[in-house]
Amino acid sequence: MTQPKLIAIVGPTANGKTSLGIDVAKRFGGEVISVDSRMVYRGMDIGTAKPEPDANVGVPLVGTLNRIEDLFGLNKPFLVEGVPHWGIDLVNPDEEYSAAQFKEYAEKKIEEILKRGHVPILVGGTGLWLSAVIDNLDLSSTPSDEKLRAELEQKSLGDLFHAYKKLDPVGAEHIDRDNKRRVVRALEVSMLTGKPFSELQTRGESKYDVLQIGIAVDREILNERINDRVDEMIAHELVTEVRSLKEKYARLPDRQGCTIESMTGIGYRHVCKFLEGQSSLKDAIEEIKKDTRHYAKRQMTWFSGGAGSGSAGKRGVKIQWVMNSKNAIDLIEMFLKEKTPQK
């Protein structure tokens, strides 16, 4: 059986994935699936660096719609320069969204894109979500204990990560340590099974013939881009965005605006500290820059395979690292012309 071809554009934040994804989609008739665990939240636009949508965003693709999904806008692409983007604005900031949910969503979208005769292009830096799709990870077989999880959720993020690092040092190298729900889940599974969470993410048989491309950027240049991006976010009213979200979700029963899980992400938690008088805006900006640089370093650890064993540790050998978009276009052109091996 011939496997459908899939392109994945990966790497750390601010390395040019979004722009390359759009260029590739335009050239090869593709549609983009965003693989970013923060862009799924509606109303969190500036701090997640969502691409600017076209004026006609939300036009449904005729012939592929499910009435229920269309009613809630889940089958309307986020159009950027005329290119359909999926995986953006899927849930509200106070809702949970897991890697398993994304895997199910992405596989459905890939099927729809292929039926339209287009090329599916995964673009993003959330390593586990990418691996869930292209490595067909089994995310459903890990145990759970609601009582233990409730106890863990009462602890600080710092304490949780410290405990998790002791049980799973490999997993701690690449987990999104700013995502409390994710750290709680990884720690919960490690405690229940007595095995590192990173070793329990088993692979199934691959469903796709995948070309993974990473844009190689010098560390100093990447850090400069990150610093410039943060300055642009502040100039584009990141503080106003965070204040609005804080006020909106503080009005909900049993909710405090800055403590919902999505607001613990980089940028949002720092501005929250400023709004609550715990830091100056200048200090908040510098902390955002520093934590984003650290996050980019962890992303590179994931994609380079430096995390050691487990699913993350085998990734670097599969990724074709390129210096510019021309190199990427040439690789993709050859890949799409090649015959896919029969399964």
SSE topology:
Layout: E1 5-10, H1 17-28, E2 30-34, H2 67-71, E3 78-80, E4 83-86, H3 99-115, E5 119-123, H4 127-134, H5 146-153, H6 157-167, H7 169-174, H8 180-193, E6 209-215, H9 219-235, H10 238-250, H11 268-275, H12 281-304, E7 319-322, H13 325-337
Parallel strand pairs: 1-5, 1-6, 2-4, 2-5, 6-7
Antiparallel strand pairs: 3-4
Would you give an account of this structure?
By secondary structure, this protein is of the alpha/beta class. It starts with a strand and ends in a 6-residue tail after the last helix. 41% of the residues are buried. It has a 7-stranded mixed beta sheet, sandwiched between helices. 45% of the residues lie in helices and 10% in strands. The model is unreliable at 57-73 and 306-313 (pLDDT under 50). It has 13 helices and 7 strands. The longest helix has 24 residues, at 281-304.
